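The material for today's practical consists of a large collection of protein records. There is nothing in a record beyond a sequence line and a structure line. As an example, a complete record with its sequence and its structure tokens follows:
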Amino acid sequence: MPKLTLERLDLAGKRVFIRADLNAPLSSGQVADDTRLRAAVPTIQHALKAGAAVVLASHLGRPGGKAAREYSLRPVAERLEVLVGQRVELAPDCVGPDTLARAQALAPGEILLLENLRFHPGEEANDDGFARELAALADCYVDDAFAAAHRAHASIAAITRHLQPAAAGLLMQQELSALGRIFESPERPLVAILGGAKVSDKLALVEHLLGQVDALLVGGGMAFTFLLALGHAVGRSLVEAERVETARAALDAARRRGVRLILPLDTVVAESVDSASGLAVGIRGIPPDHMGLDIGPRTCESFAAVTRGAKTIVWNGPMGVFEKAPFAAGTLAVARAVAEAPAFSVVGGGDTIAAVAKAGVMERIGYLSTAGGAFLEFLEGRRLPGVDALTEAPP
């Protein structure tokens, strides 16, 4: 069902609880990469301009349910002040009498950032009592943390039982809109590109995509398990022997459904990931003492030919060990091919977005999702607790 969105809330004079994803990397007590903070700013500013006071909440790292100074959100508060151009008060905790008093004292246009939600075990336990305490801080709820939407945590799921309405923030809306275009009403042909190291990490995704897409391009380390299933000798390339039969079944399923499951024609091999250079060889010519570490030039062209005919593309996972210069060409070629395709494209996952940035084509991608696990679970067709918990939109 369509979900209630931020724009439909009457926020004037209200305290709005915004669950954001401010889980930024820290270095020497400062935010090292503020990408996630910047992504949260539009929703915060919308609420402020609408006359609301903002109670902002997020987790940071994995402190294990207890307070730890190195996981404090203080550096996040300091960086947010710069990004939103006003004071961001940091509460000493996310619940408790002091935090409640600070929230109740907020005037319209002010921001209170709660301390790390995961300092309390009730957050990850989706504890109802902890959720009630969070809900008492505000008059309505906005979830803008799609990256955490696959977690049934108190600030994401249980809180909505006590704090209504529960609406999607601007970033959440963008994610749901972009991902919805992939499966709900995609322009066809719909092409999926999968990479990464292990087929076991993407097995459920492969099985789901075969019922959705017109073509599935497989690269990265996971491709070698499929190639082994076809009888190819893959040298010392990464394979999961226990998944060979499953890969063979996926290939059979693709044939039955008329889905083009396209594997590499060649690969860049070397003795190890630390080798100074690689050699492109055909799939039938992998030396027994070498490993495939990137897709080769023939595969790059094969994949590009498919993307040129696509109308919708979704891509997750690099084509090789792209962080090493000798094995980056394949991933960068795919990034450029996706950018040049006459298609709506969605790229997700930290490594994949890093590759798109390295290729210099970020502005030519339809939508970039940094959601990671939630992105993959959505593509697998799984229900996301953070989305299910939101209020259904009225007609």
